[in-house]
Amino acid sequence: MNLPLNIRNAMVARVKILSGLNITERRVPQDGRIKMRVGANKSVDFRVSTLPLLHGEGIVLRILDKSSLNVDLTMLGFEPETFAMLKRCLARPQGLLLVTGPTGSGKTVTLYSALNSLNREDIKILTAEDPVEFNFRGICQVNVNTEVGMTFPAALKAFLRQDPDIIMVGEIRDIDTAEIAMKAAMTGHLVFSTLHTNDAPSSVSRMIDIGIPPYLLAGSLTMVLAQRLGRRLCKNCKTVIHHEPDDLLAAGFREEELEDLVTYSAVGCKECNGLGYKGRVGFFELLEVTEEVAKAIAAEVPEDQLYKIAIKEGMIPLRRAALMKVAQGITSLEEALRRTVVREESLPAYLVNPEVEEYEDGDVIIQEGNKDNDFFKLTRGRIAVLKSGKKIAEITEPGEYFGEMAAMSGEPRFASIVSVGRCAVTRYPGYKLLELIEKYPDVAKKMFRTLVTRLQKTDRMIVKLASNGRPRPKVMRQAN
Ligand SMILES: [Zn+2]
């Protein structure tokens, strides 16, 4: 809606009055809230924020609709395995439980849902929030107010004298808050909080950066849950869409998954206001601090190693969690790619985005006798293998590797590789071969399979040549 300019001041003043703000103060930002009754027994909260702009004031209203607040843990989109881990963590008598993700990733709802699932008459729950967004029966909530000295650390200190069972502190930003939270977690309390990090393993590094000694963290951290929200495809109008296998593999799907994979895309209909999406679903990466993980934290292993240990212990990485929702038809590949990233350490750039090269008919890709050692994968077209100018083989299967012999042996190129018609190949740096075999067995496996197939072919050829060239030795019967 484009409103006439002359109502600007009146409207800004009206919103500011409704939200209890100072209407004469136009030079500094202000925060307030409006509670509005809609119908008989429904009320909607608005979080109001003003910002002095060059030409007047900017106002943003954030709608907090309690009726759409889903504090049922089972409805957030946890995969069964992850949910089992989460329940295990929530059942522990004490420890620090962290939820992490960027603003708008649904951390608050997850925390509230977790608290709600533990909310019983005989359990005392205290929360310090900045500000309290939703009010819950049976939970004592405290608004943090830095201006009067009611900071997170101050609230936490007071909490410990109130004999709670469960504490939630809105966010851990500094060593003071972190230290008291840790102390509470080690003295018989379940402590929930949030951090601003990208994924679960990096929260461990963040806590150590803040100043918590690794051995202490290892002893008191129960879990880190990293999350993102993706839009749910509208059930009414989603349609099957075909993605190129290469795109699916690049997104992180495994080759063996492609055959049965059905993906959907957003269309738009009346049900979803033409958006193609309706509602949202969480993608969760849960790092449970098992004995192995605790050992790794205490030993201060590098982050990418911790990541691998966590995966061995059952953590499903964020991208993987998002892809599972794609495979279930709940969200689209687009959403998964938009909300999550393939962790850089898990796949290096030369594997995620290898250089693609195009060749014309007769172009030489590999020159016999040269000492370069890059290796390649055929993505489109055909190539011929030439030895001293004579064609000895042809590679026609997309996905087949070639040129890896030189990378393995370090010898000069044994034969030339020439494009037959147009072809496209991806190039991999030869000096990375050992790293690839060591760290990315999935990729290496494919390469070795190609290699073995080729060797078998050669083997058969040699056997055939040997049997054709020489007459078969006759079985002589020896006379006695
Ligand atoms: Zn729809």
- Total strands: the figure is 18
Radius of gyration, in angstroms, nearest whole number: 31 Å
Class by helix and strand content? alpha/beta
Task: Choose one word for the global shape.
Answer: elongated
Mean pLDDT: 89
- Give helix % range: 25-40%
Low-confidence stretches: none
How is this structure best described in words?
The protein is α/β, with parallel strands linked by helices and 480 residues long. The protein is 34% helix and 27% strand. Helix 5 (175-186) links the parallel strand 7 and strand 8 (190-195). It has 16 helices and 18 strands. It starts with 7 loop residues before the first helix and ends in an 11-residue tail after the last helix. Helix 4 runs parallel beside helix 5, helix 11 runs antiparallel to helix 12 (333-339) and helix 15 (433-439) crosses helix 16 (441-469). The radius of gyration is 31 Å and the shape is elongated. The model has no long low-confidence stretch (mean pLDDT 89). 31% of the residues are buried. It binds zinc ion. Residues 234, 236-237, 268-269, 271-272, 276 line the site of zinc ion. Zinc ion binds next to loops.
Brief overview:
The protein is of the alpha/beta class and 480 residues long.
SSE layout and pairing:
Layout: H1 8-18, E1 30-38, E2 42-53, E3 56-65, H2 80-90, E4 95-100, H3 107-118, E5 125-129, E6 139-143, H4 152-160, E7 166-169, H5 175-186, E8 190-195, H6 200-210, H7 214-220, E9 221-233, E10 239-241, H8 245-251, E11 263-265, E12 277-288, H9 291-298, H10 303-312, H11 318-327, H12 333-339, H13 349-352, E13 355-359, E14 364-366, E15 375-387, E16 390-395, E17 401-402, H14 404-409, E18 416-428, H15 433-439, H16 441-469
Parallel strand pairs: 4-8, 4-9, 5-6, 5-7, 7-8
Antiparallel strand pairs: 1-2, 2-3, 9-12, 10-11, 13-18, 14-18, 15-16, 15-17, 15-18
The structure holds zinc ion.
